[in-house]
Amino acid sequence: MQGRALVVGASGITGGHTARELIRGGWQVYGLSRSAADMGDGVIPVGANLLDATSVEAALETIAPTHVFFTTWTRRATEAENIAANSAMVRHVLDALAPKRSVRHVDLVTGLKHYLGPFDAYVSSGLKPETPLREEQPRLDLPNFYYAQEDAVFAAAARDGFTWTIQRPHTVIGKAVGNAMNMGTTLAVYASICRETGRPFRWPGSRAQWEGLSDVTDARVLAKHLVWATGSIAAQNEAFNVVNGDYFRWSWLWPRLAAWFGVEWAGFDGEIHPLEAELADGAEIWERIAARHKLKEFRFDRLASPWHTDLDLSRPLEVMTDMSKSRRAGFTVFQTTELSFTDLFAQLRSDGLIP
């Protein structure tokens, strides 16, 4: 299937991989971001402030996509602010496109907070949803900007007559520079700093995450799922978990990641050691490392997002998802999680982003 795609957030991990997957399939691809920077790979850059309806309308004035992929979000201080900002971004894009009557399908990428709620909510409430997480589980009675985004899509679909698919990945592993949520590259930077300074590659998270089963989502798998959903009747007006398809324990994976970098590792020792504290001096150290190894990115905060990795790895509960619904609908892509990380590490090294 081919068409004209608008990828909202095309400079991020999910958006960038989705744009490249679409290009390989022969699609015409517009990449919408705030800066309209060159995204390469044949993506046509479009710049707009998604929080400004006038800016979005002007940017999309001459663009009539058949498919829209929402792959971005903005972080705010409270969940009420998250709801207002993130639902507005979805509405502004779909409202700007509505008069053209060109949109046939919309894909919205959210995540597992659909089942868990905002981080503060499940930490303070002791909420422990049944795992593996399944799409049939109802919404929680909690404020959640994912629900507001979904509702914005549902309302526009009812108004404009397009179909939709919701994708719910776990932590997305893939390359992007300047991304706000980037566990894979954050761990690569952490391991590189450990090697340069002689520090142990110490597990930063909780006992539940260290010992429990988990899964992640390779950005390449998510991109294929997004493109698959555009042409699958079984995916129309449905929500899907999207993960690699295997389960692992961090107690098994952590030593293997350390071995890739050739560093000593330390497991859970009874306490959480947040990366934000471990890497408080990361910016200064990274600048020295980047200069010595002639790396392409000197700014630590363009590569690492310790706060987000801490949120994932310090969860007080086991988190994993069920992929049966996608399998039954015909999506059979599988990815080994260890290779998700090591393929990324190799790419970062090849691209001159880590030593």
From TrEMBL:
**What is the taxonomic lineage of the source species?**
Bacteria, Pseudomonadati, Pseudomonadota, Alphaproteobacteria, Hyphomicrobiales
Domain PRISE-like Rossmann-fold span(s) in chain numbering: 64-302
Protein name listed in UniProt = Nucleoside-diphosphate-sugar epimerase
Instruction: Report the superkingdom from the record.
Output: Bacteria
Q: Which SUPFAM superfamilies match?
A: NAD(P)-binding Rossmann-fold domains
InterPro entries in alphabetical order: NAD(P)-bd_dom_sf, PRISE-like_Rossmann-fold
An example Pfam family from this entry, by short name, is: PRISE
